[in-house]
Amino acid sequence: MATNTDTGGRLFVIASFIEAHCWFVPRSPGVDESLQARAYLSECAGKGLAVALGGHRLGAEVGMLLGIGHDAAGDELLQLLAREGLDAANVHRLGEHSGKGCGLVDAQGAAAIAIHAGANALLGEQQLKACAAQLRQAAVVYAQLEAPLPLVAQALRAARAAGAATVLNPSPWHEEDALDTALDAASVVIVNRSEAPLLLGRLAGARDDLGLDGLPQPLLEVLWRRWPGQWLVITLGGQGCAAYSRDGQALRLPAHPLRAVQPIGAGDAFSAGLCTALARGRDMEEALRQANACGGLAASRPGILQALPFAADLAALLLRGRI
User: Fold this and answer.
1) 201 within 8 A of 227, measured Cβ to Cβ
2) Counting CB atoms within 10 angstroms of each CB, which of 82, 192, 265, 314 has the fewest?
3) Which residues of the chain are under the pLDDT cut of 50?
4) pTM beyond cutoff 0.70
5) How many C-beta neighbours within 10 Å does residue 41 have?
6) Which of 143, 165, 172 is nearest to 155 (CA)?
7) Residue 65 to residues 46, 52, 53, 72, 105, Cα–Cα distance (Å)
């Protein structure tokens, strides 16, 4: 997959910030049921922020567009970026409240998550124009849907026109018509197992549950007729990942044998690994191998942003996998 040639492996992220609150419970509660949580965690999070920080920790040159509130959570986020050395030039204080989120994680590591967008929803064309130069210079531009959908679509169109590889994680899922514009501007789409039927239903008219044996060829033929992208990547949790290309490649990589502590943020670590590898010119198979390792490492550690691996962590795990 071609990317900009004069970019130095730059990654630009249409980001999001969520002040996350996670309760660890024995099981998911039923309707009108209260449960005693065994643990509680609060920290800075957000799908886009995690990908930006993850790429930065892996050694990529990362820029991001981000909205935060005029609140203590926004102050905390700016302090975190300063500690990590991550560029905050396009972090904008918008509105009173930063994004908020709550997660319930059961004893098996399955998570249920709800978010309120807060300042993320206030990002618009003015803020996008301010980062236009960085967007044009990126090798890879990544976006997710905790940011406003029209903004995401506009950013991906501009990046693709400039020659960048454009990567979209359409999560949280939206049903608005503007989603089609964003999908059409993405050269790579990443979805998890639960999102894949929604995506395939929208693009190919098939909402069947995703099996582990792969997508049938007739479905893929419909997908490539209706969607102009290059790669569909599906994360499968403990079963690894699968990827399908327009030119007929089908890749399936197993997960690393790491014990999952909590899964929140593992998908974003996967995306960070994938985008960083693609920005450095790696082929998709190598990018998926790096992404799988990053996702596994994040899931095997407590926390969200603090669980994101550094380049040395990734290298050590990949080396062990080759021995």
Assistant:
1) no
2) 82
3) 2, 4-7, 323
4) yes
5) 18
6) 143
7) 13, 10, 13, 20, 29
List the structure tokens of 229. 């992208």
How many CA within 13 A on the CB side of residue 60?
31
Q: Any bridge partners for residue 108, and if so which?
A: none
Residue type, 114: A
pLDDT in tens, 257-289: 777 776 778 999 999 999 999 999 999 999 999
Q: Residue 139 in contact with residue 1, Cβ under 8 Å?
A: no
Closest CA to 289 of 300, 274, 276: 274
Could you give the CA distance from residue 308 to residue 59 in angstroms, rounded to a whole number?
13
The C-alpha atoms of residue 190 and residue 166 are separated, in whole angstroms, by 11
Cβ burial of 97 (10 Å; 0-12, 13-18, 19+) is middle
- Give the C-alpha separation, 200 to 206, whole Å: 6
Residue that has been written with the tokens 């069947």 in this structure: 208
- pLDDT per position as a tens digit, 95-126: 999 999 998 988 887 888 888 999 999 999 99
Q: Locate 261 and state its tokens.
A: 């502590």
Gap between the Cα atoms of 251 and 33, Å rounded: 43
Tokens linked to 259: 């014990």
Contact (Cβ atoms closer than 8 angstroms) between residue 161 and residue 32: no
Rounded Cα gap, residues 311 and 223, in angstroms: 35
**Phi, psi for residue 64 in degrees, rounded to 5:** -150, 155
